[in-house]
C-alpha cells in the first residue's frame, strides 16, 4: 500500500509538457479489453495498477492473490505506432486448504509489445489495431509464469456518439503450460461498451470468453467486468473496477484500482 501511495502521488505531481496537437486521453486502463488508439509520437503514458485482489475458490480450497505496482509504460514511436513494456513489481498469494495456509510471493514477468494502429490512431470513429507481444520469464511463482510466451491482439472500437463507444478485443496466445514448461494455444474474445456518464467520468461494462487448451486440462472461462475511469485533468486518470467469474473455471472475483499519467 505504501508503494501504491508513493506512485499515485508521484504521477499526479510530475509536470506535463504541452503538445501542439494532443489527442484525447486514451489509457489501457481500466477494463479487460485493449484500446485500438496509440500514443502520439514522442509522448509517454505511465499506467500503474496500485492494488489488485483476485479470489479463486474450488472444492475445499481458497486462493487469494494480491498484486501491487503493476506497471505499463507506453511510448509513441510514430503517428500510428507505440511500443510498450509491462512489469508487475510485487505479488503474493495465500492458499488455504485442508486446514493449512500457504504463503508465496514474487515478482511478475516482463512483457514487450508493439501496437500498430491501422485506422484512426486517436481512437476516433472506427479504429482498429494489431498488437503482437512477447513475455519474458523474469518473475517468480506464483506471479511469474515460469517460461516465455507470445501472442497477438486485435483491438477495435467504434464511437456510436460523443458519449457511447463499443469495443472488442480478439487475442490468440502461445500461453505457458500450467506446470511452467512449454506452451499451448489460448484464445480470448472481449466485447464491451463505454458510457460517458459525466464530463470527467466514464463507465465501462465488458464480457470475456476465454478458451485455454492446457495439456493438464482444457478450460472455457466466462467473465463479466464493470469499471469506472475518472479524469480530473487532461493528462491524469484514476480508475477502479471489478470482474466476476460466470462459471466454475473462472476466478470468482477480482477488484482493482490504479492511475494513468500522460507526459
Task: Please characterize this protein's 3D structure.
The structure is a single chain. The chain has 263 residues and is mostly beta strands. The protein has one domain: Porin, CATH 2.40.160. It is built from 1 helix and 13 strands, in the order H-E-E-E-E-E-E-E-E-E-E-E-E-E. It has one helix at residues 2-13, and strands spanning 44-58, 61-78, 81-97, 100-106, 110-119, 126-136, 149-159, 164-176, 183-198, 201-214, 217-233, 236-245, 253-262. The protein has a 12-stranded antiparallel beta barrel. A hairpin with a 2-residue loop joins strand 10 (201-214) and strand 11. The two termini are 24 Å apart.
Tags for this model:
263 residues, Porin
Largest sheet, spatial ordering of strands:
1-2-3-5-6-7-8-9-10-11-12-13
User: What's the helical proportion of residues?
Assistant: under 10%
The largest sheet is: 12 strands, antiparallel, barrel
How much β-strand is present in the residues?
over 45%
Instruction: Determine the N-to-C terminus distance.
Output: 24 Å
Radius of gyration: 18 Å
Structurally, how many domains make up the residues? 1
Assign the CATH topology. Porin
Protein name: Transporter
Pfam family, one: Phenol_MetA_deg
Keywords: Signal
InterPro entries: FApF (IPR025737)
